[in-house]
Amino acid sequence: MAPIEVDNLTKDYGSVLANDSLTFTVEKGEVFGFLGPNGSGKSTTIRMLLGLLKPTSGTATVLGADIRDEATLIEAKRRIGYLPDQLGFTDEVTGKQVLDYHASMKGDSRRDELLEIFTPPIERPIREYSAGNKRMLGLIQTFMHDPDLVIMDEPTSGLDPLKQEVFNEFISDECERGLTVFLSSHVLSEVRRICDRVGIIRAGELVELEDFETLLGQGGKRVRVHTSDGATESLTALDGVVELSTFPDGVQFIYTGEYNALLGELAKHDVSDIEISEPPLEDVFIHYYGGTGTEGVNRGGDTDV
Amino acid sequence: MFETARYETGRRVRGTVILIVAIGLYSAFIIWYFTVLDGIEFEDVFQDLPPAMLEAFGIESLSTVEGFLGAELYSFVWVLGLGLYFAYAAGGIIATDIENERMDLLLSFPISRSQLLAEKFASLLFPIIVINIFVGSGVYVFVSAIGEAVDPMHLVLVHVLSIPYLLVCGGIGTVFSVMVSRAAIAERGAIGVVFVLFLVESVVGGADEYDWIQYFSPTHYYEPTPILIDGTYELIDSGILLVAFFGLLLLSQILFHRRDI
C-alpha cells in the first residue's frame, strides 16, 4: 500500500468547496509536491490527512490508516512527521522544552543529529525566535522521531536561502533512505528543485499531474527592467513576452522565449536595473489557465482555506 | 501517558504561585482586620442590608472569626473569585490552541482527542489542589497568630468541598473552550455564565416562587460559611456537583470529538 492514497476526497464548507473529489497517490520514497496558489485548498487536504478536518465525502489512507478511523490513524501518526504552516509553539517556554515535550509524545532518536543541521537557539524562549528559527525548530520536531512519512505545509517559508539549500539537501538524502515526503507550496521554484512529482490544485480541484511538465517548461521568468533610453518597445517586441506591464522608465513581463534573444536585446540598451526571477504561481496560472487560480472557489464569504 | 498533563501543569506553576501569594496576602489582611474590628458592634451595620446581599456574600455571623472568614474570604474569594478564575482558565485550554494554531501540532501526536482534552483539563487540578492546601494552611497559621481558633476539621472541609465546586466552574469553561475557536470569547463566555449563575442564586434564594432556579447554580451546592461555623454540609451537594462536572466534561468530549479544527 502506498504511503498516501487519496480517493475522491471532498471538503465542502457550504460557502466554500475547499477540496473537490481529489484523487492521487504518493508512492514510497518520493517527494510529492502539492502546488497551488494561496487559498486553493492545499492546507485543507493536509488537515484532512491528519484527521483535523472530517471529509464531507471520499476518504484517504496514510501509511495504510483510514483518516476517518481515529484509533488506526493514531497508530500511523507514530510514524508520521508533520510541519504545519503556522507554528504555534507556546511563547514562554524554551525551544528545548518544546522538543522535550514532543520527544515525550513521539520519541527523539534523531534530535542531536538534526540540531547540527538546523540550528535554532534552543536555550532561548520561543518568543525571542525569528520566523526562520521557528521554522527550524519545526523541522527538527518533524524529523526527530525518524518518521516514514513526512507531511509539510509550506516548509521553507521564513527560512533564509542558505538554510533552504540545507533543507533541500537534507530532504533528498532522506528520500534516498526511503522517506516519503508530501509537501505543499505556492512557490514554483521550490517545488521544481526538490519534488519528484507534482500535483497542482486549483480552486479545490486537482489539475492533471502530467500538465506540470508543460507548465515548468514554459513557465518562463519574470523580468523587470529599468532603462534610461526607452527600450520598452523593442523589448516587448520579442517573442515570448506576455503579461506585459509598464511603469515610468521601465517594463515588467513574463518571458517564455529564448534567453539569448532576451540578453542580446538587453545588451543594446542602457539598463540601470534588472531583476529576473521565478514568476509567482498566480501569474503562471493566469497565463495557462486564464484565471487567478482561486476564482470559482468562493461561493460567498472570504474564508481562508 | 500524561506527558501533556505534565507539560501543561508545568506551564501553570508560575501563575499558581502568584495566586497563592496574592490570596495568602489577602487572607492575612482579612484576619488582621478582624482584630481591628474586634469589639465593634458592626453587625448592626449589616442589619439593614437586603437578605439577598447577605446571602450572596455568605454573611451570617461576622463577630466570630469563622463567620468573618466565611464571608470575607471564602464566599468572596473561593466561590466568586476562584470560581470565575477556573471558568476563565478552562475557557482557554482548547480555544487558545485552536486560535494560535497550536492544535495542529498537538493533534499530529499519536494521542486521541479525548485523551488530549482530559490531560489538558487535568492540568487545572494542580492549581485547584495546591491553592487549597497552601492558603488553607496559611489561614490556620494566621488565625492562630492572632490568638483566635478555627476548628481544623471545618477548615479542611471547607477546602475539600470547594474542589467539586471549582471543577464544575472549570467544566463550564471547558464546554465553551471546545465550542468556539477564539480564546477570548470562550473565556468571557465562561466567566459570564458562572457570574450570572452566582447572581441568580443569590437573588432568587429569597423568593419562594422562583427558588427552583437556584438549583441550576453550582454556588447553591457549596456554602462555605455554615461549614466553617459549625461544620454543616450535605454530602449529596458535593455528589450533585461531581455528577454535573462529569456531565460537562462528557459534553465537552463529544463536542471536541465532532468538530473540525
Description:
The complex is a heterodimer of chains A (305) and B (261). With 305 residues, chain A is of the alpha/beta class. Chain A folds into two domains: 213 residues, Rossmann fold (3-Layer(aba) Sandwich); 59 residues, Alpha-Beta Plaits. Helix content of chain A is 33%, strand content 27%. Chain A is built from eleven helices and 14 strands. In chain A, strands 6-7-8-3-9-10 form a six-stranded mixed sheet, with helices on both faces. In chain A, strand 1 and strand 2 form a beta hairpin. The longest helix of chain A is centred in the middle third of the chain and has 16 residues. The two termini of chain A are 29 Å apart. Chain B is mainly alpha-helical and 261 residues long. Chain B has one domain. In chain B, helix 1 packs parallel to helix 7, helix 1 packs parallel to helix 8 and helix 7 crosses helix 13. The two termini of chain B are 23 Å apart. The model of chain B has no long low-confidence stretch (mean pLDDT 88). Classes of the chains: A alpha/beta (305), B mainly alpha (261). Chains A and B meet through helix 2 and helix 3 of A and helix 1 and helix 6 of B.
Write a short abstract of this structure.
The complex is a heterodimer of chains A (305) and B (261). Chain A is an alpha/beta fold.
Compile the SSE list and pairings.
The complex is a heterodimer of chains A (305) and B (261).
Chain A: E1 4-12, E2 17-26, E3 31-35, H1 42-49, E4 57-62, E5 65-66, H2 70-77, E6 80-83, H3 95-106, H4 111-117, H5 131-143, E7 149-153, H6 161-176, E8 180-185, H7 188-194, E9 197-202, E10 205-207, H8 211-218, E11 221-227, H9 232-236, E12 241-247, E13 250-255, H10 259-267, E14 271-277, H11 281-289
Parallel strand pairs in A: 3-8, 3-9, 6-7, 7-8
Antiparallel strand pairs in A: 1-2, 1-4, 4-5, 9-10, 11-13, 11-14, 12-13
Chain B: H1 3-37, H2 43-47, H3 51-56, H4 65-91, H5 95-99, H6 103-106, H7 113-122, H8 125-145, H9 152-160, H10 162-179, H11 183-204, H12 224-230, H13 235-258
Helix pairs in contact in B: 1-4, 1-7, 1-8, 4-10, 4-11, 4-12, 7-13, 8-9, 8-10, 9-12, 10-11, 10-13
